[in-house]
Specification:
mainly alpha, 8 strands, elongated
């Protein structure tokens, strides 16, 4: 059976000899000439580009994928049923299957209000110091943040000390460098203070003998006697014999850069068994 005569869609030539699915001859182009396409802005990023197709609306594949994702999200949102927000009682379209509130802020406000209504805010004793306090949250067990931090430190003290010792042994050079930096910083504070006159060794030994080689704060001598500045150097104190006092290692390290009033106040909060200074007939200053 002879093939039916078929003509080219473009020029009308006979294409009976070609494949039966062919629509045009081999001399005709597969696509019409695009001509000169004017530059246009991208719908996603706004960048002006030269399109390669008449129906092009995006400058790149990335922008085109983002455009399809947005269209898909819009169609999904339109297909979702309208929900009622329990916080503000407004109708909204959910973006997720587990969404309950119209916005995250609305959900946070509603949950906070429910927590206040159903929270147990009756006064209770602190688990560490025993002080009765009114909690701000139903799960609060400590009266202050200091009590909570101190309890956490007491719980993990052995692990932290062991970790610090292991690090110091593994990094001796870095440890010496940090100690030297602290020493240079302290010397700079002493030298840059115009009221600092220095402390002679003879004067310091005389002051220590006056306090009978004991701490002026607690009366102990555990860890050796340290030179403590009553008004810290970092807060404008003088490096002079009138501003120093003998102190044990614990008192000197816990006091740090605090005034005596601040240190005693924090000690009463941080420790239940804070050392009470004994009655001493000697003055606390030289």
């Amino acid at each position: 059976m002879a093939n039916a005569t078929r003509a080219c869609d473009r020029c009308g030539a006979d294409i009976s000899a070609l494949h039966h699915n062919a629509r045009r001859c081999k001399t005709c182009p597969k696509r019409e000439a695009l001509g000169v396409l004017s530059d246009r802005p991208c719908e996603i990023c706004g960048k002006v580009y030269t399109p390669k197709r008449r129906d092009s609306v995006c400058c790149s594949r990335a922008c085109n994928g983002l455009r399809y994702n947005r269209l898909y999200a819009v169609r999904q949102k339109e297909a979702e049923p309208a929900l009622s927000c329990p916080g503000c009682e407004t109708t909204f379209k959910a973006w997720r299957t587990d969404q309950k509130y119209c916005t995250p802020d609305c959900g946070n406000r509603h949950r906070a209000q429910r927590a206040i209504v159903y929270a147990d805010l009756t006064p209770r004793p602190c688990e560490r110091c025993g002080t009765a306090f009114t909690p701000k949250q139903s799960t609060s067990v400590f009266c202050t943040r200091l009590c909570g931090r101190r309890a956490t430190y007491a719980r993990y003290r052995k692990e932290r000390v062991a970790s610090a010792v292991a690090w110091a042994r593994a990094n001796p050079e870095l440890r010496r460098a940090i100690a030297a930096q602290h020493k240079s910083t302290r010397r700079a504070c002493e030298q840059l203070n115009p009221d600092s006159v220095g402390i002679a060794s003879r004067e310091w030994r005389k002051l220590v003998r006056r306090y009978r080689h004991r701490c002026a704060y607690c009366g102990g001598s555990e860890g050796g006697i340290h030179m403590d500045h009553v008004i810290p150097l970092s807060r404008g104190g003088r490096h002079a014999i009138g501003n120093v006092i003998p102190a044990c290692r614990r008192c000197n390290l816990t006091k740090g850069a605090k005034l005596v009033v601040e240190w005693k106040r924090d000690e009463s909060r941080w420790s239940q068994d804070a050392k009470q200074p004994p009655e001493m007939s000697l003055p606390l200053s030289a």
